[in-house]
Design a protein that fits this description.
Rossmann fold, ten-stranded mixed beta sheet, 2 domains, 16 strands, alpha/beta, four-stranded mixed beta sheet
Length: 319
């Protein structure tokens, strides 16, 4: 097993090397929380080779259990093996599965309809957009280098989705506004280990499931116990907010704006908290007027020392 650091992932983004594949165990651990969303739905997996995809494997073998209506999967053709497919495919492929026909509860080869696509299978192509229009829910691990564009397309076509993205994606332009407006949120689990085409496991920077499917964790209330005092919660030099070093240390009685680590989103309950914005270092205008622009420093600072990425929130239920 090998470890991938952030430099590796940034390199992957620049070179469009997105060959990190999701383990079946991670898919099973996440999908078990959404079973009620899938009955009579068309699922589309549009960013991995359906012939070897663990997403296609999961949904085809759990087709009847989930009560699916149809499963569709497509892959990008990959002569140079540098994008979505781990096979050296000369042509993009679409597989369609409508469930078990012979009663053995196994997706046999003759029950799966295989089609060659006219184009390259890119999720932005006309062919794949037409398939997207047929789908109710999209579930996959989209290419790291195209995550913003991928999510924008799903929101544009008003699709339900459950997809994997790097933790840094939270503050991307086009991603954070959707989170702030409750158009998407984090799923149950994070993902740390990915598989390469050669079968090796790599530990990457933490990634999250991003979704607009409701789940029980989103309704859990975060238990707070500390009370506010200015010594423990200093104000930023350049933002109208106090700093919270750790999510569990948020004061229960403070009704103003708080700057919290982006990991707060793993505990975010929209009934308990309001997301106000984020630091200007993450996007112009993200702070919604909290930033003192005359400071000239977009990253939050305390006594001149920069603080890592912050989201700004308010507690809806202060005592």
């Amino acid at each position: 097993m090998k470890k991938i650091n952030n430099n590796n992932l940034q390199s992957a983004k620049k070179t469009k090397n997105d060959e990190f594949y999701t383990q079946l165990s991670d898919i099973e651990n996440e999908l078990k929380h959404y079973k009620h969303h899938f009955r009579d739905k068309v699922v589309y997996c549009n960013c991995d080779d359906p012939r070897v995809s663990n997403f296609f494997h999961y949904f085809s073998y759990n087709f009847e259990h989930l009560g699916l209506k149809r499963l569709i999967a497509t892959c990008y053709k990959s002569k140079s093996m540098d994008l979505f497919s781990q096979n050296d495919s000369e042509q993009a492929v679409c597989l369609i599965y409508d469930g078990d026909k012979n009663g053995n509860n196994v997706p046999d080869q003759d029950e799966i309809e295989a089609q060659l696509l006219d184009g390259d299978g890119d999720f932005r192509s006309d062919e794949c957009v037409e398939l997207l229009k047929q789908a109710d829910i999209v579930v996959t691990n989209p290419p790291f280098s195209l995550f913003r564009e991928y999510i924008t397309q799903l929101i544009e076509y008003d699709k339900k989705f459950l997809v994997i993205g790097n933790s840094n994606s939270i503050t991307y332009k086009g991603i954070f506004p959707a989170i702030k407006e409750n158009k998407m949120w984090l799923g149950y689990n994070c993902v740390r280990w990915f598989q390469t085409p050669s079968g090796e496991l790599y530990e990457a920077a933490r990634s999250f499931w991003y979704t607009n499917l409701e789940h029980n964790k989103r309704n859990e209330e975060l238990i707070l116990w500390k009370t506010y005092n200015p010594d423990d919660y200093p104000k930023y030099d350049n933002y109208d907010a106090i700093n919270i070093s750790k999510v569990v240390e948020m004061p229960i009685d403070y009704d103003g704006v708080m700057g919290v680590p982006i990991t707060f989103l793993t505990k975010y309950n929209p009934e308990q908290f309001e997301i106000v914005g984020a630091t200007e270092s993450e996007g112009k205008g993200f702070s919604e007027g909290l930033w003192h622009s005359e400071s000239g420093v977009a990253q939050a600072t305390i006594n001149g020392k920069k603080v890592y990425k912050r989201l700004f929130i308010k507690n809806r239920k202060t005592i």
